[in-house]
Structures are given as C-alpha cells and as structure tokens.
Write a structure and sequence with these properties.
Largest sheet: 5 strands, parallel
Number of strands: 5
CATH architecture: 3-Layer(aba) Sandwich
Radius of gyration: 16 Å
Bound molecules: shikimate-3-phosphate
CATH class: Alpha Beta
Structural class: alpha/beta
Shape: globular
Strand content: 5-15%
Strand order of the largest sheet: 2-3-1-4-5
CATH superfamily: P-loop containing nucleotide triphosphate hydrolases
CATH topology: Rossmann fold
Length: 187
C-alpha cells in the first residue's frame, strides 16, 4: 500500500502514546488499525482478540455464558493493560468507550481516532460475519442505528475522525495518516 514516507517520519518523530481506534461494529477499526500500524512500523492489537485469548473463548461465548457486564469488565482490564504497554496501535470493541473508566483512560493517554462509516456500510460489513452477539437479538440495521444514537456523542470526543467509506483501503489509510500528522503538528 502506498503512502508518503515523509508523513510517516513526521508522525514517528512526534508520537509519544498509543493510537486507539474507536467506532461502531463494522466501521473498519481492525482493518484500518492494522494498516496504520504497518505503515508506522508499530505493533497492532485488537482488544477483542486479547479478551478472547485471556478468557480462552470467543466474544460470543463470553456474552452467552457470562453476559455483557462480565465482558465489559474484562474489556476494561485488557484495554488498561494494552495502554500501559507503550507505543502501539489498538483497535477497541465498539462498546469500549461506553465504560467511563475505559473512556477516560483513552482520552487521557492516547491519540484517539473515531473510525466513522455510513450505516449501510456497517450493515453490509457486519453481515459478512456471525461473531457479534449484540446484532443477533433483532434487525442489525435497527440495532446499529440505535447504538449510533447512543454512542456517537461519546465517539465525537476522539481527537480525530476518519471517514471509512467503501472506496479503496489506501485512501482511508492516507486520510488517517494525514490527520494524525496534522493533529500532532498542531499540538
Ligand atoms: C461490541 C463490539 C464488538 C465486540 C462485542 C461488543 C459493541 O467489537 O467488542 O461484540 O458493543 O459494539 P467490534 O466493534 O470490533 O465489532
């Protein structure tokens, strides 16, 4: 994937904290996060993967067997640990910043990016996989719209917003890199 090495160098010189991606399910946090990490030559972690590894079961199974509250507590602990591990790129689950402690840790200690997509794009993307327990209890489009209503006022607090459209991944990556560079330059 092509990007401007000068932008990468500028970011690498200034970045002194983890980059954290937030946003709704299917917005593209994991995909874009992995690409940002690769471009910046930083480690990438997806908090859902870490929760699954720690629990020894899938997110769906955790929801089924122990409920959402239990999942949220594990999520809070995993994200706190990841934030303590230094410079990296971390994609969080869509509900992570709805926990006040997690949100505060992210606002205080990271460069936060809201990965934002149109509702229909998230509906299409989430339909490809069956791994999201919150979308199984009804019409996914309706559930995503409701979650958007509740969560966007919180997501808006992120340092940067990146629009994750259906165009080429490279364009989204370059949009993210430019916005990160500009944000760090303006600090
Ligand atoms: C959730 C999003 C999921 C996962 C869990 C709950 C949410 O992660 O953490 O199913 O509350 O929005 P993704 O946003 O990576 O799909």
């Amino acid at each position: 994937m092509a990007y401007d090495e000068e932008i990468i160098e500028q970011i690498r010189r200034r970045l002194d904290r983890p980059i954290v991606l937030i946003g709704l399910m299917g917005a593209g946090k994991t995909r874009t996060g992995r690409q940002i990490a690769q471009a910046l030559r930083l480690p990438f972690t997806d908090s859902d993967d870490e929760i699954e590894a720690a629990a020894g079961m899938s997110v769906s199974e955790i929801f089924e067997r122990f409920g959402e509250e239990y999942f949220r507590d594990g999520e809070r602990r995993v994200i706190q640990r990841l934030l303590d591990e230094g410079a990296s790129v971390i994609a969080t689950g869509g509900g992570a910043v709805m926990n006040e402690d997690t949100a505060q840790a992210i606002w205080d200690n990271t460069l936060s990016i809201w990965i934002r997509a149109e509702l229909n794009v998230m509906v299409q993307r989430t339909a490809r996989r069956d791994s999201r327990p919150l979308l199984k209890s009804g019409d996914p489009e309706k559930i995503l719209a409701e979650l958007a209503g509740k969560r966007y006022p919180v997501y808006e607090k992120a340092d940067i917003v990146v629009d994750s459209h259906n165009g080429p991944a490279e364009a989204i990556l370059n949009q993210a890199l430019e916005k990160i560079r500009n944000f760090l330059n303006d600090e």
